[in-house]
């Protein structure tokens, strides 16, 4: 049966897309690879997994009733709580029967003669739809490093993004963990609390800031909810789609005392988390200002970590501007290294050579342990889309089109791939923003475009090549005005060997981006052919 719409992925994006399409009276189905809904929150169930965007912001805003009735228990929600919330949303809005689980999409081919998409899943099933929405997420294809001889290792190994559902008990074990991004930083204190010994292998020190997570008291939650619409409105006008009380002054406009007071406020309890990215208006564009923040953060690390050897390894180097690799937000990460059984090893200086039956060999010698944990991240932004045999007009394979990096128009449409939309894809604020906010913005915008096409009885909606080229150039120009491209980050594709080095997100913020896409819509969807 031909559907109006197929959606790939049942995370935050796919669930909301399903809700909106049904609201519009469309026939729609979501295909989800996992055996449960939740996307990133289904898969990433490693110890300590928690969202570092505050729960009151990292949640749907489309339903006032939902906002009112759901009670977040903490300032930053745990993976389990977010997954409960998503299941609640699916049940509350009666969406479950629109989602097919265990349905991994392996191919999607555009049929030019009939203006529709043929979609196949791993079990050989075939579906057809006019519209195809890729809600596949930016961080859904895990990266296991090609550690030589891993098969030789006799103990168990785990990846943060494929954690066993039943959990892992490390009590009494010697554990080695590779990777110090957000996942590794969150896991460290949790594994340290169980393991007899934890050794963290770090290739690059990144910055991490304290979350200051707290449980909500009923009074605090009630007060926050009383001003929810104001909070959402402030979020919409903030660069990352969440209100972080951004300082509008540059560092040069402040005295050294004012600068320090600003940084202290952001590091301490009243601030915390991503507020540290907004201490000065020019901190992501001027190196001298960024250094003030970086030096402040290094001082804090040295204050917390008592052993100077460990502290020096944990301090990010001067060639990594603060925040240009995704900032980590932690609870007791640096404090964990004051425990005698927790150590950090700099594998940039002392490289990892291979796995052995009892552990791993570094240049300096072998470390023996019982279990190995990979917190080595993802083939970010493009991994999920490139893993599908996704073919547009003329049979062009997306994987080939994106050989030199992802290209899109507004991060939503891809030239040569009509009637296909990407939610929070490369070329949009996506991973630099509060994802749930960006997802709602995209889905609402896509639905309006579809309504426009339907009203005109159009069968084909496609981004024009020249519009895509101009957008790709604009994204690169905007990124070039910032310090972001200086880091070997996953934003740049630098964490995957051989991946093209391109800054993959729209860097200039949620409010500007929203104004651009609203203008495009107001100008008759300039840059799209609606035929
Ligand atoms: P990540 O940020 O990419 O970190 C991966 C870590 O593994 C890095 O330290 C990396 O070192 C290291 N690594 C990768 N390949 C390696 C290799 N071959 N040998 C040695 N080390 C290697 O991945 P992640 O921590 O899973 O986080 C990814 C993103 O997911 C985050 O940035 C965030 O956007 C999201 N996330 C969010 C939350 C949250 O909301 N709290 C939690 C987890 C993840 P290099 O730096 O040298 O590449």
Task: Characterize the structure shown.
With 531 residues, this protein is α/β, with parallel strands linked by helices. It folds into 2 domains: 2-141 and 379-530, FAD/NAD(P)-binding domain; 150-374, no CATH class. It is 31% helix and 17% strand. It contains 16 helices and 20 strands. Strands 1, 2, 3, 4, 5, 6, 17 and 18 form an 8-stranded mixed sheet that branches. The chain has a 5-stranded parallel sheet with strand order 7-16-8-9-12. A 3-stranded antiparallel sheet has the order 13-14-15, with no helix packed on it. Helix 5 (182-194) links the parallel strand 8 (174-178) and strand 9 (197-202). The two termini are 24 Å apart. The model has no long low-confidence stretch (mean pLDDT 97).
Describe this protein with a few key phrases:
binds NADP nicotinamide-adenine-dinucleotide phosphate, FAD/NAD(P)-binding domain, 16 helices, alpha/beta, 531 residues
Question: What secondary-structure arrangement, pairings included, does this model have?
Answer:
Blueprint: E1 2-8, H1 12-23, E2 28-31, H2 40-43, H3 64-69, H4 79-92, E3 99-100, E4 105-111, E5 116-121, E6 126-134, E7 157-159, E8 174-178, H5 182-194, E9 197-202, E10 208-210, H6 218-226, H7 228-236, H8 256-267, H9 287-304, H10 308-314, E11 328-330, H11 333-336, E12 342-346, E13 352-356, E14 359-362, E15 365-368, E16 371-374, H12 383-387, E17 389-391, H13 398-401, E18 420-422, H14 435-455, E19 461-463, H15 465-480, H16 510-522, E20 528-530
Parallel strand pairs: 1-2, 1-6, 2-3, 4-17, 6-18, 7-16, 8-9, 8-16, 9-12, 10-11
Antiparallel strand pairs: 4-5, 5-6, 13-14, 14-15, 19-20
Bound molecules: NADP nicotinamide-adenine-dinucleotide phosphate.
């Amino acid at each position: 049966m031909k559907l109006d719409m197929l959606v790939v992925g049942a995370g935050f994006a796919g669930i909301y897309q399903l809700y909106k399409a049904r609201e519009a009276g469309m026939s729609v189905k979501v295909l989800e690879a996992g055996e449960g809904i939740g996307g990133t929150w289904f898969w990433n169930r490693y110890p300590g997994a928690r969202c570092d965007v505050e729960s009151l912001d990292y949640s749907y805003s489309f339903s006032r009733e939902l906002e009112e009735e759901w009670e977040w228990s903490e300032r930053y929600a745990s993976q389990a709580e977010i997954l409960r919330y998503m299941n609640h949303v699916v049940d509350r809005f009666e969406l479950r029967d629109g989602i097919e689980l265990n349905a991994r999409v392996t191919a999607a081919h555009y049929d030019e003669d009939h203006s529709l998409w043929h979609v196949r899943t791993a079990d050989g099933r075939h579906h057809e739809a006019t519209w195809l929405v890729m809600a596949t997420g930016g961080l859904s294809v895990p990266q296991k490093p090609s550690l030589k001889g891993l098969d030789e290792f006799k103990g168990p190994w785990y990846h943060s993004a494929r954690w066993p559902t039943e959990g892992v008990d490390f009590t009494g074990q010697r554990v080695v963990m590779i990777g110090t991004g957000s996942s590794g930083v969150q896991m460290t204190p949790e594994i340290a609390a169980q393991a007899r010994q934890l050794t963290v292998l770090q290739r690059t020190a990144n910055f991490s800031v304290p979350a200051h997570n707290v449980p909500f008291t009923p009074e605090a939650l009630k007060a926050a909810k009383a001003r929810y619409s104001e909070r959402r409105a402030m979020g919409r006008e903030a660069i990352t789609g969440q209100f972080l009380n951004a300082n509008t002054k540059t560092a040069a406009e402040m005295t050294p005392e004012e600068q320090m007071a600003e940084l202290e406020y952001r590091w301490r309890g009243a601030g915390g988390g991503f507020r540290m990215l907004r201490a000065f208006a020019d901190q992501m564009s001027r190196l001298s200002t960024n250094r003030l923040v970086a030096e402040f953060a290094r001082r804090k690390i040295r204050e917390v970590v008592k052993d100077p050897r460990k502290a020096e390894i944990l301090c990010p180097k001067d060639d990594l501007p603060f925040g240009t690799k995704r900032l980590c937000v932690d609870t007791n990460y640096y404090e964990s290294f004051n425990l005698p059984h927790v150590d950090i090893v700099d594998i940039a200086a002392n490289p990892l050579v291979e796995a052995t039956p009892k552990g791993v060999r570094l240049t300096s010698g072998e470390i023996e342990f019982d279990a190995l944990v990979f917190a080595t991240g993802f083939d970010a932004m493009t991994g999920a889309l490139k893993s599908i045999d996704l073919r547009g007009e003329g049979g062009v394979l997306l994987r080939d089109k994106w050989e030199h990096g992802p290209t899109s128009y507004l991060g939503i449409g891809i030239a040569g791939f009509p009637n296909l939309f990407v939610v929070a894809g490369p070329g949009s604020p996506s991973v630099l923003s509060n994802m749930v906010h960006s997802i709602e913005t995209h889905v609402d915008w896509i639905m309006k475009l579809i309504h426009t096409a339907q009203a005109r009885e159009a069968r084909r909606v496609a981004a024009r090549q020249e519009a895509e080229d101009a957008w790709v150039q604009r994204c690169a120009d905007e990124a070039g005005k910032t310090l972001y491209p200086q880091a070997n980050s996953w934003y740049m594709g630098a964490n995957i060997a051989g991946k093209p080095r391109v800054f993959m997100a729209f860097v200039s913020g949620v409010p500007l981006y929203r104004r651009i896409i609203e203008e495009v819509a107001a100008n008759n969807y300039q840059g799209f052919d609606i035929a």
